Fold each of these.
Amino acid sequence: MTDPEHVELLAQQLSARKPLLTLSLAAVLAPVLFLLVLAAFTVIP
């Protein structure tokens, strides 16, 4: 399964999914960051 064509196909699929991956990552991280900031503001004062 390590023929160059297969690897190239995999790379193409990965590069095609990259924007989707970054979007989902941002969607996951945004609420977490928001909660962290919220927690920081409630703890500090």
Amino acid sequence: MCPARKCAMLYLPAGETSPTKEREGKPMSPEIERILQQTLDRIENALQTDITPEELSRAAGFSHYHFCRIFKAATGLSVMRYITLRRLAHALYSISCGQEKTEAALAYGFDSYAGFYKAFRRAYGASPTEHLRSHRAAFPARVNLKERGENMEKHIIEQALAHWGLEGAAAQAVRYPNTGNLSGSTFSVAEGYVLKASRGLGSMQRQAVLQKVLHAHGLAAQVVPTLDGRDTACAEGWECLLMERLPGEALRAELLLREPAMGRMVGEGLARLHTALKECDPLLCSRECFADTLRGWALPKLREAEGDRWQWAETWLEGFAALEKELPVQIIHRDPNPDNLLAAEGRITGFLDLELSCIAPRIFDLAYAATGVLSVAFGQAGDGEAFAELARAIWSGYHAASPLAPEERRALPDMVIAIQLICVAAFTGTDRFARLAATNRQMLELILANEEKLREPIA
């Protein structure tokens, strides 16, 4: 999947994401950087008081919508998620220094220790007590945007690898097979390891917890503990996770469109993934509602830019919102694009990149797997029949392994439309993304033109 489209899909409100992954194009102007740094300092000074995104946007002199966009572009986090994570870090440090747990939680804006505990477990993948047993809580230094690089520099990679006794090991940035893009935060190490890093606090720790469950099912790489027995290590603000390399090769989008029957393999793999993810603690992930994203952000943005052109989507959304309420939810992958699916000998051998995992309708992954292929190989999908055939093969493979409820089968084409509408909205109204906006509109038109095929009964 192209990085820009992945960035667009982050407008679906996910958890922490790495700014390395999500920021693209020109760097921030010095003036924007100055204003955002003032915002971060203002947040740091107000962690023990009530503070809202609306207050911060007014102080910054931006509209609320524009402020939230540039804040997320700079930090990789929504405003409230950033505030919550800073409060968690300070409360944890206070607890490590001897302050009573409930007192520390209340001091940093949580209504109760139970609320603090739930938020902490979601962010760190462990309880505060468990975390402090294996991690020393350092004082949370203020965030300085000037010190946050776009990619992991060589000396930081070397610092990170030292935690695993791999000083001097060769490390090369991973290249995504479907796009040819190099990752700035994932590296092949020595002969058999992969180092993954994120600036999102607790992101790698949470991924480690999920991966251990999936590894037991043969669906994810084994986590390699540090020399002192921890799952992750930190190096200059990067949280790092070392894994053994998985067997198999990333799926190729062009091949899937040429041979759409291969989609059954993808669907069967996703069914195994979802079965394994049911064993994970739901406190690890936040709940997502895609109808809310469409109603509160995507469609208003499209209406503002293009008026009545999107009236049909307003009517469609009423039906989709009602459907989404009926759908079974669980922890999902949320980014099963072809670069994140490994296969060998006609079988999915593993899943990569669990950073965006959330609690949502399980059919989201089935719809996203299809649109992820289309986004990479658009232009090779012909009149859309190959895409529709691939999507239905994915869904049929899943249904054979893990039967879908009638409401799930009915909602699958609508979830595809929802995903594509959000992508169109993300790229609309910005000159820099004008070409991508046009391409994503064409993709939406292709999907709508083949809606009847997508709605045919699943075998």
Amino acid sequence: MFGISLSSSPIRTIFSFIRQPISMTVNALFLALAIYGIFWFCLLSPTDFDTTLAQLIEIKPNTPEYRRFFTDLYSSCLSFGAFIVLAGKVVRFICGIFSPKGDEQGDGQGRLSGRASVIRRKMTPQDIQYVGAHEAGHLLVYAALGQLPSSMKVKVKEHTDNTTSLGYVSAFTSKRVTQSRLFIEWQMLASLAGREGESILLQDNSLGSIYDNHEWFELARLYLKNHFKGIFYIEPLSEFEFNANEAKLNALKEKQTQLLQEFFSLNLSVYKQLTSMLIEKKILYGHEIIPFFQQADITFPQGFPFPFGRFEKFSDEWHLEEEYGKVGTVVDKKY
């Protein structure tokens, strides 16, 4: 997934924190004033004017009854105004929890958590080129699966939105409780493939790989904690153990980066064609991607993982419905 980062200064964060209670207080005061006006408008209406005037005459100024009358009136208006403001906040919060989230919040590598406010801006041709190369890089690694659901989707957006994602690959959701070593190895390569594809095709990199790097790091730690590459300290306590873990992480990333560089070099013409097709159409679906993989002459370097097993020809059928569901199924993870 290609994402943009939203940087914020400490001053802006503090201001945002203070602004909320100030805004709520001002809204409550305006509502209290409106309720106060409505109260007197009703009491001084032509039908109730004489009754209200007689009651007010009975209340002498500067007496406890006089002060209690207006104190109760002011506090009631303010309390009611504050209640309306808080009720509105609660309703918006509940609606935010149950509002549907699009599949662009998750991609071939995972789900983007949280929301951020992004000004809607049109992508420039160079923006689309970078995002297209990035997402096509992710997508090309899916060729190692040998099969894909026709419902999968790859998208390059033409405008920014509130997801912070500018493009994504959304293929399937895992139903499995456990996961295999080969699948995790493939998944780590898929996480890194967007950036490595950019490097080879554009000789440059965007700054849209933050989430990919975060996911790779989490997957790598899980992978190494199972000691597939030797000793990795589950809970490092000393500087030696921290340094040893860091060395293992760096070595794993370097090895996988080299494997991806070889993969893209062997399939550069296919990668260029896939990137051009994605940039032109902006959205590719499974029924377009599967024939492309079937017709393309894709070569895999030695040591490349095949999580669903080796294959002679890319299949036009999806045989893993029991293991992996369609995107949109309520599960914890998207790939």
